[in-house]
Amino acid sequence: MRDFSVYGYWPHTMERWGEVFQATSARAAEDLAQMYAAERGAALRVAGVFEGVIASVDRYTLFVDPRDVRNLDAEGLDPDVPGLQNETWTVLGLIESAKDRRWNEHTGGQRFCDHVLADSPLSAEDVVEDKARSEGGRLLVCAVFDGTRQRADALYAKFADPNVQVG
Prior knowledge:
167 residues
C-alpha cells in the first residue's frame, strides 16, 4: 500500500477538496475517493491523483473560484502574498466547455495540470485561467502546488470521470 493524494471539487458547493488515501495504485485511490463521496451521498469530480502526500498551497480559498464571496466568512484562510520573484507552481483543475453543457455533464470536464511561473499561487491560477479562456474553456482550479508535480493518473484518465473516453 502506498499514499496517493487525490484532488478535485464538490459540484454541489464548488468547494475544492483533497485527501490522502492508501491504495495499491492511483486508480484504486481514486476509486476510494469516489466511495468516500458516495457514502456521503455527494458527487465528487476528481481533477488529479498524485503519488505520495502532496499538500496544496492554495490556503487563500476554499472554492474553485478564489474570489467566491463565501471565502470572506471562512476561517483559517491565509492571504495570497506575492513573492519577490517568480516561482514554479503546478495548477490542477478541470476544464469545462464554455459552449457545450452536455459535454460538461458527460465528461465532468477535462483534467488539467500545468506548470507556470508566477509570483504567487493565486497569480498562477490567473495565468492558467486566462489561457483556458483564450482556448474557449473555463478552468475550475482544484489545487495549486509549489514546484513541479506530475499526475499519477495521467495514463488512465483524461476526464473527471475516468471511465469516459471521448475522441
